[in-house]
Amino acid sequence: MSGGQSLNRKKQTGQTRKLAIAPYLFILPNLLIFGVFIVIPSLLGLYYSFHVYDGLNPMKFNGLGNYIKIIGDKEFWSTIGRTGIYAAIVVPLIYAVALGIAMLLAREIRMRGFFRAIFYWPTMISFIIVGLTWKWIFGDSFGILNHMLSVIGVEPVGFLTSPFWANAAVIIATVWSRAGFFMVIFIAGLQAIPTDYYEAARLDGATGIKVFRHITLPLLKPTSLLVFMLALIDAFKAFPLMFALTGGGPGKETTYIVQYIYEIGFTKQELGLASAMSVMLFVIIGGFSALQFRMSKGGAV
Amino acid sequence: MKRRTNLKLSLSLVLIMTLIMLTACGNAGTNTGNTGKTDSSGGAEKATLDFLWFSDGNEGEVIKGIIKDYEQSNANVKINLIEVGFKDLQTKLKTMISGGKPPALSRITDTGSFANQAVDLTPYVDSAEQFEGQFIDSLKPYYVINDKLVAAPMDVTANGLIYNKTLFDKAGVKVPTSPDDVWTWDEYTAALKEVMAKGGARYGMVWDVTPHRWSTLLYQNGGSILTEDGKAAAINSEAGIRTMDMFKQLHKDGIMPESVWLGGENPNNLFRSGTVAAHWAGNWMISNYKDITDFEWGVTYMPKGTQRSSVPGGKFLMAFKDSGNEKEAAEFIKYLTSKEVNSKYNQESLFMSPRQDSAVLDYSFGKEMYQVFSDELKNTSPLAANDWSRQTIISKISTDLKNNIIEVLSDKATSKEAMDKTAKLINEAIANQ
Questions:
Q1: Buried-state track A6-32, b at ≥16 Cβ within 10 A, e below 16
Q2: CA of A57, closest CA in chain B: separation in Å?
Q3: Model ipTM?
Q4: Global pTM?
């Protein structure tokens, strides 16, 4: 009997071991993709960042030369500043709009699925198309908005030639294209709040705003943090939308950091310098992620 | 038991997926190579030449016909045309070269950046001097770099003035009809203002957002981007600053819309809308505007500043080292640049031939317009080709130049500040060469 038991145990551990390998095998394809398309290029980028390299002629080792150059590059820092201001405006806006829509659509209303789909739909369109679509609306001579203004006898507005309006256009387009994605996260967060809390609050005679302030908002804290951080990282990585909508203009008014890196790398062909800038951007974004990790106490959201 | 079967099934699936991925990657690696020298039919050795190509108009179709002809008379060669967008060509080419699989050939504008990777065609032509003598002189610095024949011209381009004939006629404004009566800049802007006032044009002119097109005015004012020897910046000269002032004034006076240089609006679309009197563009726009039916348009002579000038440009053919088919590529380049084939290519594509002996082709459309463009080229400052053929410097500063021009237009810098700033960057680019 005892012999049989030990055999059984052996069989079990063998099976456990097999089971222990299984998850690793399952993530193998993803790991491969991650390695080939993310890790290796990132390491290559890091390597390039210490070199002078134009993509064709032999690389020349440059030590920290590229980094020193960036520290003295006024344009780089003003672009970072511009990106920061853009993020400071766009992140709270996305937050508010996404939460607002989510609050409306988390409730039992008629055609809820339809409305959710409508708000989610823009997130499925590529940023280039979003940019081109809004250009069609805001365009100076051929834009729908200016056409409508002319119909009611108002002088056309230089939406894409005035710095104020160009920035506004970029922000509006960003919020339009991203809010739906965060709405979904908020809906999930809202639905995780037990309904008893609301019932208890209602019994205590709490009104809408009070309920929102004292129940919804505090219980949504982990979700809020996630949305906030993801939107912030998104903002720092923003590029294709404005590239298509304003081309970074007028002047450099809507040129954010990724476009600047793109121009250094592909127009000026200074791939080493552009790589060093990417490494710095990675550090900035990595900083935000670390902050999020700490604030959410170990990544639990 | 069932659980175990499930596990086995899942594991097999994962393994299959991984295998598929790995083989897919492997295949991608071997397919792009052009080492396949043997004919699949088992016949004689066949060289497969990858040929990187972009199209502005219908020239892609024209080259396909020429390739077909060539393959028929050269059974040992197969040409594999790889078509990409103009904007993607450089990236694609770089990827192919740095990945160790350069194409045999490429159509190219930026000869300077790739000169080190190019096959020197000198050993393949009878005499370099004779070969170069076939083409117009101003193109030479583009394809002869460090005494090497790094490319061969396919077509030549010129900047010029396309105008809306219907609007000019409506305003009763005459355009110059011969090189002897070209406008001065003052006469020209006065003419545009009249077309705006009497002809109902919303804007006098639009101008492509590129430093290349902008520099037309610089050369007309007797200026240049670099000094003649290419060793220093010259853009912040009196002529450079005056050019910037004039360009800004055109915007201030409402002759040019801000939406193009500041708002990124497409000048082609504006001209096509029939509300703009003139478009400063290149000869390639003739084939682009061919289908306009709402109004009549034409080409006239650009005004002169202290002198007349256009800016030459061109597209070239380059063969690459280590493609394994250097000889075959050079032979094909010789074929494409021969009088007969080059004339056929340019005539059918509605392009201008770079050959001295094919200045006037029998175009099916706009023959007289090409004569104007060709006259602009004849009267072009040599400094224009001198600047724009130094692609290694120009490609590094052209975005900055564009941005600095825009800074002046948006009142963020004076003309002098912007040109000084650009000059500093140019000198840095020269020093870092």
A1: eeeeeeeeeeeeeeeeeeeeeeebeee
A2: 8
A3: 0.73
A4: 0.80
